[in-house]
Amino acid sequence: MGSAADFPKIDFTSNFQNIINNALSSTPETRQAVDPSTEELLYHVPLSKQADVDKAVSVAKAAFPAWKALSYDERAGYLGRYADAIEANVSGLQELLMKEAGKPVSNAAGELQFAIAHVRETAKLRIEDDLIEDTEERRATVRYLPMGVGVGIIPWNYPVLLGLGKLGPAVLAGNTFIWKPSPFSPYTALKLGEIAAQIFPPGVVQVLSGDESLGPLFTAHPDVAKISFTGSSATGKKVMQACASTLKRLTLELGGNDASIIYDDVDVAQVVQKIGPMAFMHSGQICMDIKRLYVHEKIYDEFLAAFVQVVKSFKVGGGGDPEAFLGPVQNRMQFEKVKDLYSEIGKQKWQVATGGEPVACDGKKGFFLPPTIIDNPPDDSRIVVEEPFGPIMPVLKWSDEDEVVRRANNTNMGLGASVWSNDIEKAERLARRLEAGSTWVNSHFELSPYVPFGGHKWSGVGMDWGIVGLKGWCNTQASWVRKKF
Ligand code: NAD
Description:
Elements: E1 18-20, E2 23-25, E3 30-34, E4 41-46, H1 50-69, H2 72-88, H3 90-101, H4 105-122, E5 130-134, E6 138-146, E7 149-153, H5 159-172, E8 176-180, H6 187-197, E9 205-207, H7 214-220, E10 226-230, H8 233-244, E11 249-253, E12 258-262, H9 268-280, E13 290-296, H10 300-312, H11 332-342, H12 344-348, E14 351-354, E15 372-375, H13 382-385, E16 392-398, H14 401-409, E17 416-420, H15 424-431, E18 438-441, E19 453-454, E20 460-461, E21 463-464, H16 466-471, E22 474-482
Parallel strand pairs: 7-8, 7-10, 8-9, 10-11, 12-13, 12-17, 13-16, 15-16, 17-18
Antiparallel strand pairs: 1-2, 3-4, 5-6, 6-22, 11-20, 14-15, 19-21
Helix pairs in contact: 2-4, 3-4, 3-6, 4-5, 9-10
The protein binds nicotinamide-adenine-dinucleotide (NAD).
Keywords: Oxidoreductase
Active site: 253
EC number: 1.2.1.3
């Protein structure tokens, strides 16, 4: 592992520029994102246009033949050194992540640690050829070949993990890569690009910042082979449509409305301690946060009361508050969207177990909302049907297994789902009936670089991570050899 002294120093407070062909690249116009804890404007970043995209794609295309010619072990070596260099710069990145994403220190530190480990562990993955048939007459092998220039389009909620979680598999498989961060959180990505420029050969990793017009320039570009997109289902559909005109390969990691089903045999005091963070982590702004909590009617009242106590204990505060567990909503647009959902509380006469509609605080800065639990709203209410992506969620009552499975599956979303019980076999049986890309028993947040992650239905197409994700960065080739004429 490298120490900070082994790597050139990065300035995390100025000089935010695109990284193209391992060089800093400025644009005539710039823009600024906002610190959601203070609403203050952050540093200037590039506003990339078509010419910047063309340059980035062209150098990435030029770098592809030499990069794909390296062995897996050689490419993995670069990734290992990259992980070391990121680790050597972790404190600067953490400060930046807290500012751009509105993350309390525990969340920012956790994201960085997981992301660095992700790069290191991803580097250990290998795809072998599949030998399907080998007779005296012929041999049939399935091979997995890199595609060319890959683009990762990233949302604002986990700017580091989701970016590195695409970069690692893309370049390990032999592709070159362009990282397009969200306009709401471009800062860590640009600095991670600067670090990458010290490690990888020119053209292997690019990072370009811009406004909402930048993504479509990549999905339309004829020399981009693959788009790996993480974001909302609505944008995912636009991305899929745009990729059709050039028949690009595509992975879509989209929204979620994860159900969690609690049986009546659980230890309530223990389970609420686990469910609390898994429902409210990052103020509900995680695709796989628990978003619909179905609690068996026999323990419903006891569970709700204990759950409320846990959620009340979460301190809300900005990046500068070391005791805060929940930060603000990440941006003004999302803040207004979630506030609109809060405004339904009075209109629909939902029962509030804790929290409630935010009271206007004149002059108070930051996109903060009170963590809120809605007690058993109707199944067709917006809080159950929609992905809130904010610190508000419903707790719902159930009594019949078939019925709760039907209700949990009664959504276009299918990202994750969990079942909680002391009877593991019973819980696994129920979990197998849930329509989701990940199911968990007695957990909701198990993730690993070795295990694929993705969604069913409108929650995604394809998967990231693990061998499945790595193969998603490859074209499959059937290779036939006739041994006798
Ligand atoms: P978003 O869809 O608004 O934006 C995501 C990215 O797409 C941004 O970089 C944006 O600039 C870009 N973009 C916007 N329009 C585009 C277009 N027409 N073509 C190409 N790119 C375009 O999503 P968001 O608000 O940043 O993120 C929140 C959403 O992301 C939530 O729905 C959440 O559930 C989802 N999400 C999913 C996962 C997952 O792994 N499944 C992980 C995190 C977040």
